[in-house]
Amino acid sequence: MINVYMDDYRKRPEGFALARTTEECLMLLRDCEVDILSLDYDMGPDDHNGGEVAKRIVLEGLFPRSIFLHTSSPWGRKEMFEILYPAKPAGTALHNGPLSVEQLYKIASGADAL
């Protein structure tokens, strides 16, 4: 089981696989069992945005155990949340914001953060 951090700019937190593009993120969701997914919205001028990833998660049933929306875009966070929330299965937790420093520390140390 892996944790995935999708962001075109920010540094990868310890304990996460980094997806620098939306396609890399979707590939990891399709090919791996994902525990925690942390999504950015703005993925650069030559890529789709986090809203497209949220749509693919719903359409393909790619839900991980937990999803965090770490984007600094309030509009992007709202769009992703509104796409994911109505479709999320009972076993998936959706957080309308980033992981806390404490959660990131626990993940980096190998402990269960959630």
Short summary of the structure?
By secondary structure, this protein is of the alpha/beta class. The protein is built from four helices and five strands, in the order E-E-H-E-H-E-H-E-H.
Largest sheet: 5 strands, parallel
CATH architecture: 3-Layer(aba) Sandwich
Note poorly predicted spans: none
> What is the fold named in CATH at topology level?
Rossmann fold
Radius of gyration: 13 Å
> What is the CATH class?
Alpha Beta
CATH homologous superfamily title: Response regulator
List the total number of helices. Answer: 4
> What is the residue-mean pLDDT, rounded to a whole number?
95
Q: Give the structural class.
A: alpha/beta
Number of domains: 1
| Lateral arrangement of strands in the main beta sheet | 2-1-3-4-5
Cα shape: globular
Number of strands: 5
Order of helices and strands: EEHEHEHEH
Structural commentary:
- Strands 2-1-3-4-5 form a 5-stranded parallel sheet.
- It has a single domain (2-103), classed as Response regulator (Rossmann fold).
- α2 (50-60) links the parallel β3 and β4.
- It is 35% helix and 18% strand.
- The protein starts with a strand and ends in a 6-residue tail after the last helix.
- The chain has 114 residues and is α/β, with parallel strands linked by helices.
How are the SSEs ordered, and which strands pair?
Blueprint: E1 2-6, E2 17-19, H1 22-31, E3 34-39, H2 50-60, E4 66-69, H3 74-84, E5 93-95, H4 101-108
Parallel strand pairs: 1-2, 1-3, 3-4, 4-5
Domain Cyclic-phosphate processing Receiver: 2-85
Protein name: Cell division protein FtsJ
GO biological process, one term: cell division
